[in-house]
């Protein structure tokens, strides 16, 4: 028996394998559930797995193991909330230097740019506090489960572990080159000292 989530995972991995294969890169799928993070031994093993894969030049493709999770069925919630939080958890496990979260807008604004033409992009946030959360508002686009609030929660987790987090528009994949070159783009959430 194959659930729709599992069928989707098969299709996703086929595409990742195909497109990374064009660049002679190998991918590996990792499916996480809450106990992988909650139990210290599993968490350590998972961190070691990421480290071993990356040392061998293998790109981990990570998703929530929600096709077999009774917790999600009972609670009607995702284990990690959404992909933003999942990305922050993975960044922490991998001891990443930086987390890049792609959005459907250019970054974090002082008000919702979909409704306010005078909204201004905030290019740098030193600390994620209550006032920043208030600016985030509620859910975002119809395509995702979260909005800027979930990106803030993910940035909060990552920055608390010393990982600088950048939120920028995913409609412009070339922005990743700009980020790698250190250009100012999107919104940078400054990493806290740990």
Detailed description of the structure:
- This protein is 42% helix and 18% strand.
- The chain is of the alpha/beta class and 194 residues long.
- The strands form three sheets. Strands 3-7-8-6 form a four-stranded mixed beta sheet. Strands 1-2 form a two-stranded parallel ribbon. Strands 4-5 form a two-stranded antiparallel ribbon.
- It is globular, with a radius of gyration of 17 Å.
Write out key terms for the chains shown.
alpha/beta, two-stranded parallel ribbon, 194 residues, four-stranded mixed β-sheet, 8 strands
- Contiguous low-pLDDT stretches (5 residues minimum) are 72-78, 139-146
| Coarse structural class | alpha/beta
Could you state the order of secondary-structure elements as H and E? HEHHEHHEEEEHHEHE
The DSSP helix count reads 8
Gross morphology is globular
How is the main sheet built?
A: 4 strands, mixed
Mean pLDDT: 84
Question: What gap, in angstroms, lies between the N and C termini?
Answer: 46 Å
Strand segment tally? 8
Strand percentage, roughly?
15-25%
**Integer-rounded radius of gyration:** 17 Å
Helix content estimate: 40-55%
Strand order of the largest sheet: 3-7-8-6
